[in-house]
Design brief:
This protein has 146 residues and is mainly α. 58% of the residues lie in helices and 0% in strands. Helix 2 crosses helix 4. It starts with a helix and ends in an 11-residue tail after the last helix.
């Protein structure tokens, strides 16, 4: 499928379902490619087969791809596109399935994209400063007295 075809389909989808920005669909398509490549690197057996990934595998790949692309701004960028939870990514996937851009098996469902992670845990916490007292890495006896 050429990019022009994909962009035209996304425009049609967005006319019917305005919840998500067009950029969210492009991100998801690129993130799927990223997730598949990463899975094939880790699993030689899967790399020889036509690869179908689960919702949880896709969400894990999308998380890694998003963090690589946007770093500490990931949650802000995704939220700006209308993606505020894992389920939103599933909705985008199923919109693309309805237009035959992506395919699914009989086992695949929207529930596969249930909240695998929270956006706070996945996209905010990795960038918060470490607090050794809160993390339990330093005991109070190790803190110099004033």
């Amino acid at each position: 499928m050429s990019d022009l075809d994909f962009n035209e389909i996304v425009s049609l989808i967005c006319k019917e379902d305005a919840r998500y920005d067009k950029k969210a669909y492009c991100f998801l398509r690129e993130g799927l490619d990223y997730a598949v490549k990463e899975l094939k690197k880790r699993d030689a057996e899967r790399s020889r087969q036509s690869l179908h990934i689960t919702g949880a595998e896709l969400l894990t790949g999308l998380r890694a791809y998003a963090l690589e692309q946007f770093g500490p701004l990931t949650k802000t960028v995704l939220n700006a596109w209308g993606i505020t939870r894992c389920g939103d990514m599933g909705e985008i996937v199923f919109n693309l399935i309805e237009y035959n851009v992506f395919s699914k098996t009989e086992k695949d469902s929207r529930e596969d994209f249930a909240e695998i992670y929270t956006f706070e845990d996945a996209f905010v916490k990795p960038f918060l400063p470490r607090n050794p007292l809160r993390d339990g890495r330093v005991s109070l006896s190790q803190v110099p007295s004033i």
